[in-house]
UniProtKB/TrEMBL annotation:
EC number: 1.1.1.399, 1.1.1.95
Any one GO BP annotation for this protein: L-serine biosynthetic process
Top EC category: oxidoreductase
The protein's name: D-3-phosphoglycerate dehydrogenase
Keyword Protease: no
Segments passing through the bilayer: none
InterPro entries, A to Z: ACT-like_dom_sf, ACT_dom, AHAS_small-like_ACT, D-2-hydroxyacid_DH, D-isomer_2_OHA_DH_cat_dom, D-isomer_DH_CS, D-isomer_DH_CS1, D-isomer_DH_NAD-bd
Pathway membership, UniProt: Amino-acid biosynthesis; L-serine biosynthesis; L-serine from 3-phospho-D-glycerate: step 1/3
Length: 638
């Protein structure tokens, strides 16, 4: 952006906005064409000609008045069509316009809509945004007695090439004027000298010649407001905030984050530490799944990072403390794939009990091996669940419903569901269980939780399931226990070393062993779970970016916040040390700011203060807040 106003104290400018593809996502004539032509046999041909004329006019290739006339001739519009579009036009507001309603409400008397479009269609949008009818400069349609459109009022300058400049000039605005528009007829206003600054608006459509003729490109209204120091002042524009999503995160998340105006980049696979260090500069939010390690080194290189979102349950791949130390919030989706893991664990248990996988593989080789030897029912067998959290306890319920007896072991006190019995040690569980299923989290101290000694303590012929984390099981020891027949079978979904993408090779000592099912970390990989995760984690990210809400953060104090309605919201993350709140309030009081609402929440290491204040502030205030000893991060929302 290089089109900033000459001085911060300059008078607030008049803001002139184009309508089609700027205030709304559509081109009026294209939308009308769709309506008129919905039943015409020549629809496609006519629609193409109308869209082509619109494009040519907007790119400055043909005369605007001529293009308008030709499009109206092609279309045979009626009043009913125009009214129908006016009825639904509010649903077409451009996202950044919709979310900046407050800017319009507060500046309505300085906003002018100048458009080659039609007054009837623009009127509902102007009313919604609080722009008075006399500040809407637009074309007037002329109808015949039967309500057919016969043309536009040619006395209105907007019906002609260059008409926007003429109409705006006639207003004689007393002060600087900025223009936001997407078309060549907007660029012409800049060339005619009737506006001081022209922003080529590219949220809906990007036209190269228009961008080239503009003072700056604006990918959203927020960017203009930011550059001009209008409403919200230093709240950073969303379109310039970069969200990087790795590991094939579900497109629903991408869509949700883009809808809210953020810039989103995606990568299919995970990145190793060095590659991530390369990519992390300039990234405001990083989205990962289980495979990307967000280490202290990565966080060190992250110059702009505000949040890391794990689009999964486990967060052992993120250095949560190092993140909190930098005021970087971490989130996950703790319940969205729980059920998927549980269903797979049940299915795998049946499959192991009946030796289905080896029997099936034999049949694919042409061998018919009908036998009951070693095949058993689930009913009446004892399932030992290690880690009775969300997944473990849900598995407990389903397993009991299938007639299994359930025992569990957890390091913390957990409510035993149904008839499940809590055991006081892992060893006690191993001694009793016919099937051992691991559902602990991936904390480092769980490395090799199941090693040679633990396998030796399992009941001979018992089965092992690991759908938690690869490092929880000593794979070499498991291979031995399987080889010796001590463990009769295993289903393993997670591995100490997992390929970063589907194109990378997999290798493991478990390959080729009898009654061993290997799955490529798909416990949470169902369509339902991935959609639910995308929705949940994206909402956590949006809550944090848009409101400062840290609900469900796994490393910062959780504070649930409503939208910012009036004034400004100051967000201050700091080390949990004495005197920070007092210092913040002293700075705010010295600046004469009235605090409308304030929250403070701390955990052992970190404090989070949110202050909603009721008036504008001086930039010096920001420096003072950042300078408070212990400050980790500070930001402002409006
Ligand atoms: N295979 C896959 O695709 C998936 C794997 N997971 C893994 O499953 C893990 C568990 O998920 P949730 O049940 O949602 O987590 P959770 O946090 O609700 O439960 C984990 C439980 O394990 C307990 N625990 C930790 N260490 C223990 C130990 N040494 N001995 C006994 N108990 C111990 C904890 O106290 C807690 O109750 C996740 O952390 C993740 O690593 C989660 C989803 C999908
Ligand atoms: O949710 C978890 O913790 C998982 O292990 C699932 O990981 P994924 O998203 O499939 O890489």
């Amino acid at each position: 952006m290089n089109a900033s106003p000459s001085s911060a104290s300059a008078a607030a400018p008049f803001v002139v906005l184009d309508f089609d593809s700027t205030l709304v996502k559509v081109e009026t004539l294209d939308a009308l064409a769709d309506m008129v032509l919905s039943e015409s046999v020549e629809a496609d041909a006519i629609r193409t000609r109308v869209a082509r004329l619109t494009d040519q006019a907007m790119a400055g290739d043909i005369d605007f008045g001529e293009a308008l006339k030709r499009r109206l001739e092609l279309l045979q519009l009626t009043r009913t069509h125009v009214e129908a579009l006016a009825d639904r036009i509010l649903g077409e507001l451009t996202p950044s316009v919709r979310r900046n309603g407050r800017f319009f409400a507060e500046n309505a008397d300085r906003i002018i809509i100048v458009s080659g479009g039609f007054r009837e269609v623009i009127a509902p949008v102007a009313a919604e945004l609080g722009v008075a009818p006399e500040r809407v400069l637009a074309n007037d349609l002329i109808y015949d007695d039967e309500g057919r459109v016969t043309g536009v009022d040619e006395a209105n300058p907007l019906s002609r090439e260059g008409g926007k400049a003429e109409a705006l000039k006639a207003l004689n605005l007393p002060g600087p004027v900025i223009l936001i528009g997407d078309g060549w007829n907007d660029a012409v206003m800049k060339q005619a000298g009737v506006v001081d600054r022209f922003y080529a608006f590219t949220e809906v459509v990007r036209r190269e010649p228009v961008v080239a003729a503009a003072d700056a490109e604006a990918r959203s209204l927020d960017e203009v407001l930011h550059a001009e120091g209008l409403s919200g002042r230093w709240s950073f524009p969303r379109s310039r905030m970069k969200i990087l999503l790795l590991e094939n995160i579900h497109p629903l998340a991408v869509q949700r984050l883009r809808e809210e105006g953020y810039s989103v980049e995606t990568l299919k696979g995970a990145l190793d530490e060095d590659a991530l260090i390369e990519r992390i500069r300039g990234v405001h939010v990083l989205g990962v799944r289980s495979k990307t390690n967000v280490s202290a080194r990565v966080l060190e290189a992250a110059d702009k990072l505000m949040a890391v979102a794990a689009f999964c349950i486990g967060t052992n791949q993120i250095d949560l403390e190092a993140a909190a130390d930098r005021g970087v919030a971490a989130f996950n989706a703790p319940y969205s794939n729980t059920r998927s893991v549980v269903e797979l664990a049940i299915g795998l248990t049946v499959t192991l009990m009946r030796d289905v996988v080896d029997k099936s593989a034999a049949m694919h080789r042409g061998a018919w091996n009908k036998s009951a030897t070693g095949s058993r029912e689930l009913r009446g067998k004892t399932l030992g669940i290690v880690g009775y959290g969300a997944i473990g306890s849900q598995l407990s319920v389903l397993a009991e419903a299938l007639g299994m007896r359930v025992v569990f072991y957890d390091v913390v006190e957990r409510l035993a569901l149904g008839n499940a019995r809590r055991l006081r040690s892992l060893d006690a569980l191993l001694a009793e269980a016919d099937v051992v299923s691991l559902h602990v989290d991936g904390r480092q101290s769980n490395t090799n939780l199941m090693g040679p000694q633990q396998f030796a303590r399992m009941k001979p012929g018992a089965l092992l399931l690991n759908l938690s984390r690869g490092h929880v099981v000593d794979i070499g020891a498991l291979a031995q226990a399987l080889g010796s027949g001590r463990v009769a079978g295993a289903a393993v979904d997670v591995f100490p070393e997992e390929p970063r993408t589907n194109d990378d090779p997999f290798d493991s000592p478990l390959m080729g062993l009898k009654n061993v099912i290997l799955t490529p970390h798909i416990g949470g990989s169902t369509e339902e779970a991935q959609e639910a995760i995308a929705d949940f984690a994206a909402e956590r990210v949006l809550g944090y970016l848009n409101r400062g809400d840290t609900t469900f953060s796994v490393n910062l104090p959780n504070v649930q916040l409503a939208d910012v309605t009036g004034g400004h919201r100051l967000l201050h993350i700091h080390r949990n040390q004495a005197g920070v709140l007092a210092a913040i309030n002293r700075v705010l009081a010295d600046a004469g700011l009235n605090i409308l609402a304030q929250h403070l929440k701390t955990d052992e290491h970190t404090g989070y203060v949110i202050a909603d204040v009721d008036r504008d502030y001086d930039r010096a205030l920001l420096a003072d807040l950042k300078a408070i000893p212990g400050t980790l991060r500070f930001r402002i929302l409006h």
